[in-house]
Amino acid sequence: MNETDFGHAATGPHKIAVLGLGHVGLPTAVGFTRLGWEVVGADEDAAKVELINSGKVPFFEPGLDDLLNWSLASGRFQATPDVTEAIRSATVVFICVGTPQREDGAADLSQIEAISRTIGRNLNGYKLVVEKSTVPAITALWIQRTIQRYSALKASEAGGNGSGKAPPTGPESLAADFDVASNPEFLQEGQAIENFFEPCRIVIGADSERARGILRDLYGGLRRPMVVTDVTTAELIKHAANAFLSTKISFINMVTDICDAVGADVTRVAEGLGLDPRISPAFLKAGIGFGGYCFPKDLRALAHLAEQQGVDCSLLRAVERINSQRVEVFLDKVRNSVWVISGKKLGVLGLAFKPNTDDIREAPSLKIVDTLLKEGAELRLHDPWAMPAAKALYPPEAGRVTYCESPYEVARGAEALLLLTEWDEYRHLDLGRLRDLMQVPALIDGRNFFAPEEARRAGFSYAGMGRRGVSPYARELAASGQSRPATPVWTGMGAGLNG
Ligand code: UDX
């Protein structure tokens, strides 16, 4: 890689610490290294740190291993399990720790709180503390208050133990030298590197000119549009962005069910919608719904916050409800194909919550696998990257759960093939070969990945999500003599085996 690509030499005064080396932290750390900054990445998980320092990425993210190795070789990046030392060595501290979900749907901010206390106790000069993890609005205010409180506490301990410093008169009396800013991440798993270097926008939320200046500086090499706001607004941009994208997906999934009911094709509806620049084609892919670490929990956290503030968030609740129903809609299609699930050998293609990741957190596939196993199916599973994670949840078990080396192995003897993740690897499968290996050539496509005509030509009965078919409603219309354009056989809910 060419050091000058980003127009920034490694002479900047800012030393960065990235706290938390997960799906967000690690790409952020090596991304900033590539931009020319000196970066230390800290994570309490010593085994993970050792792996990273040896040039290995603890999860699958395309392009990240190359960038990690480049960063290590540059001498400007290293990982450490010593979070305190990382904080003390840096002038800019990015918080990238997890914000999981609490039982009540709110974000669990205990890791953010703990790290804020550690930062407070280790303020050894000015620091800009940047929230990168997705957090509900006003979290920055809490971070600020916590750092202030614990830095004052540390100073007062120091004053009281013979350090010679005068003890403060109250916790707020010490003006600790720091700022808290929000710089939300919009990294998509599977595209994190691309998203880091070519973001559609960089959101900078800061309440001081000094903080704004540093963040502008850090990202200056990218020359991308910047939205500069106050901290709370930046926090809300992130949550609102995720909620909006989730809403788009649930909207098209609702339209999908209407398509199934009236015999229309949702992929063409999405095409017709997406060409309107006010709508755009992105995030209009219908199917078994959204999963992953962000959308489901961020949606619930925003709804929780809105409810707490007395704001009507029934829209968000509907988005969530529609999404959670997707799995049932899909399972009905499976039942319509195989009838009784018990004792059926079913092939499953794809387990990750989306392609190009080995992540199965909140993946719709998990609920589908769960239900099929409960109903007594024998599953043959494949995913290019997510099988190790799946094995930890569903260990191989003869006659019940079999992990297969290839999609063709999945098809062997199966009575239906279920597509749950649209991996590129599946794009050029030999459908004729798959069909020949199966007991019953039925294809139930949870992501509208295959072309129905091609699948049917290869001898499959095909059921997609909201793909064109003749619905009972259309049949009734035809029987009553009213005109309606001819459409191929009905393949949605209520489809016959040969649909
Ligand atoms: C998301 C946001 O896109 C990203 O900006 C944020 O920083 C983190 O959360 P990610 O979870 O990696 O990223 O995945 P994304 O590509 O957004 O997909 C989320 C889910 O929605 C996946 O399960 C995907 O299959 C589903 N999806 C996406 C659809 O069902 N239809 C679509 O049209 C798009």
Architecture blueprint of SSEs:
Blueprint: E1 15-19, H1 25-34, E2 38-42, H2 46-53, H3 64-74, E3 77-80, H4 83-89, E4 92-95, H5 110-121, E5 127-131, H6 139-160, E6 178-182, H7 192-197, E7 202-205, H8 209-219, E8 226-229, H9 231-262, H10 266-274, H11 295-308, H12 314-338, E9 345-349, H13 364-374, E10 378-382, H14 387-393, E11 401-403, H15 407-411, E12 416-419, H16 431-437, E13 442-445, H17 452-457, E14 461-463, H18 472-479
Parallel strand pairs: 1-2, 1-4, 2-3, 4-5, 5-6, 7-8, 9-10, 9-12, 10-11, 12-13, 13-14
This protein binds uridine-5'-diphosphate-xylopyranose.
Report what the structure shows.
The protein is 42% helix and 12% strand. By secondary structure, it is of the alpha/beta class. The chain has a six-stranded parallel sheet with strand order 3-2-1-4-5-6, with helices on both faces. β10, α14 and β11 form a beta-alpha-beta unit. The site of uridine-5'-diphosphate-xylopyranose (UDX) has 20 residues, from α9.
